[in-house]
């Protein structure tokens, strides 16, 4: 895992967008795994103008996790946020968008494998060290699945509450691409931004491989870029 440090989230977002654009050809099939956290949404702002200028007709998009909710006409929160902030502004055709839902989760690993696997995955390091919705304790060989939310675990509840917003109820379950498919991605970009990610970043850099820290499996990945801003790096550089 290669680590790169940036002065702030803006500089980091620009560099991640450049990295993604550098590895997607305009007309060859490429599979991109996306997240919907605050920082990925900022990265998409930099990607949208470039993607509108070029067709990139071979790029297909998958979502790393999904949060089923009931909020007006929204039933899948991750898809709604990526759709509104990326797919629609970048004019991505729906036939190149592979949504994660209660039906597709059953066969998504097989679908991705048949399509050639994930070429580049954009993931966020969460404050407890999880990636996508593979929570601490997830097997490194876990497949894509629906997980029941342990509402007695305050760390999990707080993490999900940050994702859904404090005006919505934390769901009873979430969907996630499994660790097995993620670690098979040809290239992974893992972003860590902000004070809340400082402890997780420090632990990731120093702790041994452990399923209690799902992101630690990425130390074994041959092409993983850990992108860290100054706030998330304060424990390392302090």
From TrEMBL:
InterPro entries: Glc/Gal-6P_isomerase (IPR006148), GlcN6P_deaminase-like (IPR052960), NagB/RpiA_transferase-like (IPR037171). Keywords: Isomerase. This is 6-phosphogluconolactonase/Glucosamine-6-phosphate isomerase/deaminase. Pfam families: Glucosamine_iso. SUPFAM superfamilies: NagB/RpiA/CoA transferase-like. Residues 14-219 form the Glucosamine/galactosamine-6-phosphate isomerase domain. It comes from the Bacteria. One of its GO terms (biological process) is carbohydrate metabolic process. PANTHER family: GLUCOSAMINE-6-PHOSPHATE DEAMINASE-LIKE PROTEIN BT_0258-RELATED (PTHR42892), GLUCOSAMINE-6-PHOSPHATE ISOMERASE (PTHR42892:SF1).
